[in-house]
Design brief:
By secondary structure, the chain is α/β, with parallel strands linked by helices. It has one domain: Glycerol-3-phosphate (1)-acyltransferase, CATH 3.40.1130.10. The chain is built from 7 helices and 7 strands. It has a 7-stranded mixed sheet. The radius of gyration is 18 Å and the shape is globular.
């Protein structure tokens, strides 16, 4: 009983600090955005991630380990195709990966304050109900982002999955890679064991993130790229 109470209190403390920090950071972005460059806005937004992860470790005793940083390309942008189990990776990737943009559902931009600040970072926001238009937008805007030096983070399963669950990869990220020739970097992680989807409580432990070898995409079809990525992530998830 005492352990459950402490778990609740630690999780509650985390959420209070994280939400207050989110309000302060997003409000700052909205107020100052006419004066700030895209890179500066990105750095301001990252302060929420930095503070949240620091407080998560201090109060909830959740830290993380990253393997495979040497696989991240240093000579060009890349497309990240990652496992998605938790909100945690949307914070942690801000600190682990080079400056990047996201592919996300357009509805998120309508959330008051948070969505408005998110829109300032110019993610690729798509409407899932119109798959053809979404793919076209992803390829066109994705290429512009990559050419400008911004990486792209895509969760090919489309939503957060519980540990042990999988979903067939959507074709969008692989199609973008096939059309542009930019490399794919696969990522496997087990964040859902400690920060479960749609759950209030946070459980202590060490989240493991594994960055895989670059998948070269030149002269490969979207299907081939997806198969290679899905196979690597599935095999690596078995070791976490």
């Amino acid at each position: 009983m005492i352990n459950n109470i402490m778990l609740f209190l630690r999780s509650f403390s985390f959420w209070i600090v994280s939400i207050v920090a989110l309000i302060l950071v997003t409000s700052t972005m909205i107020i100052l955005w006419p004066l700030l460059s895209a890179q500066t806005l990105y750095r301001v937004a990252n302060q929420w991630s930095r503070l949240s992860l620091w407080w998560l470790e201090k109060v909830c005793k959740i830290d993380y380990q990253v393997q495979g940083l040497e696989h991240l390309p240093t000579d060009c942008a890349a497309i990240i195709l990652s496992k998605h189990q938790s909100t945690w990776e949307t914070l942690a990737f801000q600190l682990i990966l080079p400056p990047h943009s996201w592919v996300l559902k357009k509805e998120l931009l309508y959330v008051p304050v948070f969505g408005w600040a998110l829109a300032l970072l110019k993610p690729i926001a798509i409407k899932r109900e119109n798959a053809r238009q979404a793919l076209k937008k992803l390829v066109i805007e994705g290429k512009k982002k990559l050419d400008a030096g911004w990486w792209l983070v895509i969760f090919p399963e489309g939503t957060r999955m519980k540990p042990g669950e999988t979903k067939e990869f959507a074709v969008g990220g692989a199609l973008l890679a096939a059309k542009t020739g930019y490399p794919v970097v696969p990522i496997a992680l087990n964040s859902g064991q400690f920060w479960p989807r749609q759950k209030f409580l946070k459980y202590p432990g060490t989240i493991k993130v594994v960055i895989g070898p670059v998948i070269e995409t030149t002269n490969k079809s979207a299907s081939e790229i997806n198969q290679m990525t899905e196979k690597w992530i599935a095999q690596t998830m078995q070791t976490l």
